[in-house]
Specification:
The protein is an alpha+beta fold. The protein has a single domain (2-77), classed as GIY-YIG endonuclease. Helix content is 38%, strand content 26%. Strands 2-1-3 form a 3-stranded antiparallel β-sheet. Strand 1 and strand 2 (14-19) form a beta hairpin.
């Protein structure tokens, strides 16, 4: 399984990416465990705002690109 997810950072920015393990990835973004999460280093804590589950990486990446093209308001409305 793959997940496309949106994080809400402490500076109120939104961060979108994909992963196979949401729990681990959020811990990496919050620097609770070692991992690549440069963008969120100065924006922690981060919180999972939204996610979708996909069967493969291709689907998750396609959705990630769709979300990244959305306006902030559209992204915030995904969670309603």
């Amino acid at each position: 399984m793959y997940f496309t997810y949106i994080l809400r950072c402490s500076d109120d920015t939104l961060y979108t990416w994909i992963t196979t393990d949401l729990d681990r990835r959020i811990k990496q973004h919050n620097w609770e465990i070692i991992g690549w999460a440069k963008y969120t280093l100065s924006r922690k804590p981060v919180f999972l705002y939204y996610f979708e589950e996909f069967e493969n990486r291709s689907q998750a990446t396609k959705r990630e690109l769709e979300i990244k093209k959305m306006s902030r308001v559209e992204k915030l409305n995904l969670n309603k």
